[in-house]
Amino acid sequence: MKNIKVAVAQIASVDGNVAENIAVHMNAIEKAASVGVSYIVFPELSLTGYLPECASNLAFTVDDKRLQPLIDIAKLNKITIGVGLPLLTTGLPHIGLAIIYPTGRVESYAKMNLHSGEETYFSVGDKRHSFQLSNIMVANAICADTNHIEHAKGCAELGADVYMASVLITAGGYDADTQLMSSYAREFNMLVAMANHNRPTGNWDPVGKSAIWTKSGQLICADETQNALVIAERKDNDWIGQVINL
Q1: Hey, which end of the chain has fewer CB within 10 Å, N or C?
Q2: 170-176 long-range CB contacts below 8 Å, 24 or more apart?
Q3: In what order do the strands lie in the sheet containing 211-214?
């Protein structure tokens, strides 16, 4: 089987500063591309920070001009990118992931499961998102999606080999949340990867420790505070892990 690399980026978002956050994203994307990563995913609402009360004003469409630098870097480096952002709708915005392909095409995934209180500011999505990456199928998830086995099971039933989660997890929820993600890797034989923030955003203090699991258990994990890429490379029929500082 052809070698392929996927990565999650552990970064800090600057609340409300999209331009500065894009610059941080581009640095991580350039580093990922330089080591051969094919798909990189960032934490939940990574382009804006976790600001529910500001989401409507900060919301993006898939053809938003603010995404152009990310589209350009995806095309230049032939890399697929998943960035967290609020998505504009006719009602409350979605908590979304923009998937930017090397062709310049942009798709979106909207979080299907909200945490308590998020329904005041956000509406739910109703469709899973997966895509073919070379010879593997990748499915996307956002934070509370991973608390519902039905989400991971549905992605596995779509044929997903890899389940990429964009999250905001604090110390209090980390053990329970990661035990679930590890169980999905084991039960559904999927690589499961999680991109978390490593600095406070909104009213939350994320714990970092972005990680990747295989059916055998945890493959690799960042520490609480480092800015890093957490990478899994498929070699033959196995995965190997690596953490690279940003």
Answers
A1: N
A2: 170/204, 170/205, 170/206, 170/207, 171/205, 171/207, 174/207, 174/209
A3: 129-133, 136-142, 162-166, 191-195, 211-214, 217-221
126: amino acid identity, one letter: D
Q: Does domain 4-245 have CATH number 3.60.110.10?
A: yes
pLDDT (tens digit per residue) in 210-219: 999 999 999 9
- Convert the pLDDT of each residue in 178-215 to its tens digit: 999 999 999 999 999 999 999 999 999 999 999 999 99
Span 143-172, average pLDDT: 98
Domain boundaries, the chain: 4-245
Degrees, nearest 5: CA angle 144-150-156: 105
